[in-house]
Please model this.
Amino acid sequence: MSMIAAFYDNKSILITGATGFLGKVLMEKLFRTSPDLKVIYILVRPKAGQTLQQRVFQILNSKLFEKVKEVCPKVHEKIKPIYADLNQKDLAISKEDVKELLSSVNIIFHCAATVRFDDPLRHAVQLNVTATQQLLHIASQMTKLEAFIHISTAYSNCNLKHIDEVIYPCSVEPKKIIQSMEWLDDAIIDEITPKLIAGRPNTYTYTKALGEMVVQEEGSNLNVAIIRPSIVGATWQEPFPGWVDNLNGPSGLIVAAGKGFLRSIKATPMAVADLIPVDTVVNLTLAVGWYTAVHRPKPTLIYHCTSGTTNPCNWGKMGLQVLATFEKAPFERAFRRPNADFTTNYFTASYWNAVSHRAPAIIYDFYLRLTGREPRMTKLMNRLLRTISMLEYFINRSWEWSTYNTEMLMSELSPEDQRVFNFDVSQLNWLEYIENYVLGVKKYILKEDMAGIPEAKQHLKRLRNIHYFFNTALFLIIWCLLIARSQMARNMWFFIVSFCYKFLSYFRASRTLKI
Ligand SMILES: CCCCCCCCCCCCCCCCCCCCCC(=O)SCCNC(=O)CCNC(=O)[C@H](O)C(C)(C)COP(=O)(O)OP(=O)(O)OC[C@H]1O[C@@H](n2cnc3c(N)ncnc32)[C@H](O)[C@@H]1OP(=O)(O)O
Ligand SMILES: NC(=O)C1=CN([C@@H]2O[C@H](COP(=O)(O)OP(=O)(O)OC[C@H]3O[C@@H](n4cnc5c(N)ncnc54)[C@H](OP(=O)(O)O)[C@@H]3O)[C@@H](O)[C@H]2O)C=CC1
Model:
């Protein structure tokens, strides 16, 4: 019997960010392994014209939850959506709902965040710092609370090369940052942002670091723990391999590469690709919830959930395996044939951007205009290149994260818990994982049917022929222009033609002799 699974039986659990990538997998695993849990409260906001109930219904009816429905048929009754908006004061939770949460919640998993790299500091502080502070304030009044688990990121201190499982203080205290956001205007905030984030590439990593400080300071009277995952990717094993449903991290780039939009990237092939499967993060999170509630470790423990120390993979290897999977199962209606050129040189990268990305987009838009359609490729390409420029920081560096606490926790688990809540990535086979990841992107993000693979392969063949035809035509045009203008080019051309002629004559003569 799993001790961790039994621990969550009969518990009331509060999850923020349950509609996100990590939150959904966390809920799924909880329901599947502890179907006798009492209730899961989730803080949700209405979105894209959907009410809270509709959002929950959509999640529960997705493929991710198929197994849950078998194990826990009453799952609909055990999930309670609570209206909340982390952008608003006191999270906009109604008084009645707060009252219910205060009297019943046993465990909190705080996953909600803005993960955008381009968020203005004010918004990122509101979501990742102020909302965390307000949630801690509510948590501190909960009478039955046993543990508060905060999800941060391994990159909260990406300004350092070696990162230990400790909190590194930021130069300005979070409280002061929160206060200053109340009276500073946007223009001034934009001006001071680069100075505040000092050494970090974006407001996301900075505000996640501030969020950790808030958890440490304001959660001192609670049982808190912080989990720092690296780049969270598709599921490795559970509930099935390759599940992914958003475009963050590598997923968006896999789409862009598979569809032939992205063919080269400024990335260091030998840099560690510190991916971590989402189900591994969830297993660690649930184990940490149990350990924090039962053992109440002091001081606050931080757990790194990374792969680079135990089982490193690099971007070069990942790129090759992604391409190999495209060969087996290409994405449908690709714009160009997939390719993955990794370059570390700024000038080579700019050259390939112009030749492989911008030029084809301009030509395609020209074709769209000629055929009376609205041009869109240049706009899409600009957006993609902007996205790439924001990810470049992470694919040209390697970090080392110590994992003492994570290893300690593993040693505390029973053999059964080590199996059910496995977070040992040394067992992960990267080639298999990446292949399943790419197939998952095809199936669950692009919603492409595997039956369409032969047609997709045919399409790629057509693209290859167009590519050869286009290159030959381009070469001939340039060459003819050169011949018209340069004596040297003309001489070279005559030399090559006469050389080919002589070679063919020799070849023909030797064949005649043989006969
Ligand atoms: C040569 C090729 C090689 C190929 C081989 C390929 C594999 C090998 C290489 C792999 C290298 C992996 C590197 C990962 C590094 C991650 C490091 C993370 C470290 C920290 C980890 C964390 O701790 S934290 C979580 C990470 N946090 C994010 O990862 C958010 C980032 N991201 C944004 O911060 C915003 O994304 C940003 C960018 C502002 C744009 O913002 P933006 O406004 O321009 O665009 P949006 O994202 O809003 O998307 C607007 C609309 O475009 C749609 N769309 C978006 N991408 C699309 C796409 N690729 N194809 C089709 N459609 C797409 C989308 O569905 C929207 O559609 P709609 O408008 O209809 O809703
Ligand atoms: N994905 C990754 O690679 C990594 C993620 N992390 C961390 O893991 C956690 C979860 O990330 P992930 O699941 O990938 O992110 P997602 O963007 O998929 O999910 C974010 C969640 O936060 C919710 N949220 C955002 N804004 C608000 C708001 N104003 N009010 C209420 N809810 C809100 C979203 O709700 P809604 O659906 O309504 O938008 C969603 O449920 C985050 O803390 C992130 O920092 C850490 C390392 C890597």
About this structure: The first strand starts at residue 12 and ends at 16.
